[in-house]
Amino acid sequence: MLRFSLAFATLLLFAAPEARAFRADEMQLEFDARVLTADEKRFLQAGLAFANAYNGLIDGAWGAGSQRALEAYEIRNGRTAFVTNADVLFLALETYETIERHGWVRQYNSGLDMSFLVPTIGFRDGAPSDSFVNLELDGTSLGYSLTIGAGAQTERLHRYTAEESVMNVYQVRRPNLWITSGRTQAGVTLYTRSDYRRGAWSTIMLSAADRDAGLLAAVTGSIEPGYAPQIGISPGVLSQGIETLAAMAEDEAPAPSPAAPAVPAPAVSDGTPSTGGAQGFGTGFLVSDRGDYLTNNHVVRGCRTLTVGGQPATVTATDEGFDLALLRTSSPPGDAPAQFAARPARLNSDVTVVGYPLPDLLGGVNVTRGSVTSLKGIAGDGVRMQISAPVQPGNSGGPVVNAAGQVVGVVVAKLDAQMVAEATGDIPQNINFAIRGEIAKLFLYQNGVEPVEATDAAALPPEDLADLAQGFTRLITCN
Questions:
Q1: Considering its fold, how many domains does the chain have in total?
Q2: Which of 32, 114, 410, 431 is the most exposed place for a label (fewest CB within 10 A)?
Q3: What is the pLDDT of residues 92-122, one digit of tens each?
């Protein structure tokens, strides 16, 4: 139990309001899902799906189907339909182990404009195909086939699924959603889902033998059009309850746990400096010839007036989920807009951050260098990536560029070193986060701005790169 306690402790790196954990004397009380956040309910639904006890949407809506699945799971494991708080905490532990084993995360696929669970450990390319991206999970029968096409192709794929199935054929036909599922003579379940996205049909075809029915149920239940919340453990009633169980197992009183969130969010500084007054600062960068600038939503939140590089500006679009905002200045700029990289940043690739950290103290543009240290954010967040380039308050919203000066991300946050030191006794260094360039491009497309996308180019000398990025990067002032 101690190793589970330590594993969960590593996840408690979030800023959050207070939440109450299960006390030791509440462990045998009947479980009530209403005390959990939607994130925690999604986590349990995923665990039940992986255990092949739940075959529904992993959406955080805990209804009769989720409760019946939980009770059936308990009975199958030799317990009773009277589910206690302790039973649910043990399910949470098993779910955590299952997700960690293959590194399961719900990722947003920008090409399909869909989100779904994928493993990050043991995931490999399948058979090559001109029409599909085929992927397989080592040691299992689970396979993915992904494609985008017109209506005629989509019809053929669903007809194929139905014709290959000899029993239990299930079909959904709606204007923007088709689902066909069934089992073949060999006992393989086929599942084909097509969503109409951005003027074409995005199709996810899945297959698995009976022994991997739980994996298939988890993946199918996780599919959502567009960007969907991450599926993973977060600080809250469950994680704090695990701490209580661990302390009980060691015959110790549970130590106070860090506070837990209603909605999980990284324990990071939001980049808005405290200046002793109503003024705040951030960074933005030019993304169009007509004077559109991209920055973080938290940079412009609550501002009465805004300037970009000294020019008055207005907010034209925001997205709280992505933490992005689009501003427009009153007059067109004379500089060329930033170019976005055609491909995502790769792990360990060199990056440069350009911005205006602590402008009231340092003044002027600031350039720092580092690398991409992780392709995901905290808890497997697929919207962000981790970078080692140092950032400070005021850097938020600034561009992260590759060695050729092309944008691969937008600075969004830094890990709160003091909070982590208090929680773990260790001081983290250079753990900073950027919104992935693919997400930034999606946000621009959604709001009527077509990002300038560059082709492959040679690396620039560092001095030339700084000159290039400085040309499209501006200080944002909020009053």
A1: 3
A2: 32
A3: 988 988 888 898 999 999 889 999 999 988 9
